[in-house]
């Protein structure tokens, strides 16, 4: 069974109530339950933190034993050299995801310190961005 972890950064714990026109109306729990039931042959774990160091520690912890990491570092994407370095240091492939189209937002959101070290980046497809990332790991088997 493939093991995938979704690691979410700051403010993503507010899904469902935070700017639903941008981030949708599903809560994080509702979304995770739906994804897990849709992919019963995958072990899908989740971690969310608003604290940069906790995200780095989780990437390091999971980065040698999981088959894939789906990382939405949120605002840290554009500011954290440390998270980028953590992704570069691990063996597990990482897909960077964003719910909103970061290129349609403020200019500072066009830069990612994580993307150069990832398998790929998926932006702007709402919560479906996570599912597209899952599909990318499943397609590795083909």
Automatic annotation (TrEMBL):
Give the metabolic or biological pathway: Metabolic intermediate biosynthesis; chorismate biosynthesis; chorismate from D-erythrose 4-phosphate and phosphoenolpyruvate: step 3/7
Q: What class of enzyme is it?
A: lyase
**Which transformation does this protein catalyse, written as a reaction?**
3-dehydroquinate = 3-dehydroshikimate + H2O
Alphabetically list the UniProt keywords: Amino-acid biosynthesis, Aromatic amino acid biosynthesis, Lyase
Gene3D superfamilies, per database record: Dehydroquinase, class II (3.40.50.9100)
Q: Which residues form the active site?
A: 23 (proton acceptor), 98 (proton donor)
Q: Which residues bind substrate?
A: 72, 78, 85, 99-100, 109
Domain of life, per the record? Bacteria
For this protein, the Enzyme Commission number is 4.2.1.10
Q: Which InterPro entries match?
A: DHquinase_II (IPR001874), DHquinase_II_CS (IPR018509), DHquinase_II_sf (IPR036441)
The residues annotated as site (Transition state stabilizer) are 18
Task: Give the GO molecular function terms.
Answer: 3-dehydroquinate dehydratase activity
What's this protein's function?
A: Catalyzes a trans-dehydration via an enolate intermediate.
**HAMAP family named in the record:** AroQ
How it assembles, according to the record, is:
Homododecamer.
Family, similarity comment: Belongs to the type-II 3-dehydroquinase family.
Name it: 3-dehydroquinate dehydratase
């Amino acid at each position: 069974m493939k093991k995938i972890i979704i690691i979410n950064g700051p403010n993503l714990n507010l899904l469902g109530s935070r700017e639903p026109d941008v981030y949708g109306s599903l809560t994080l729990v509702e979304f995770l339950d739906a994804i897990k039931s849709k992919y019963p042959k995958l072990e899908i774990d989740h971690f969310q933190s608003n604290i940069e160091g906790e995200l780095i520690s989780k990437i390091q912890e999971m980065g040698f034993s999981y088959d894939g990491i789906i990382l939405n570092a949120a605002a840290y994407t554009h500011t954290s050299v440390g998270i980028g370095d953590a992704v570069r240091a691990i063996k597990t492939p990482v897909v960077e995801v964003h719910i909103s189209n970061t290129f349609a937002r403020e200019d500072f959101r066009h830069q990612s310190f994580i993307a150069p070290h990832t398998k790929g980046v998926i932006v702007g497809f709402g919560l479906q961005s996570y599912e597209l990332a899952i599909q990318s790991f499943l397609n590795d088997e083909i």
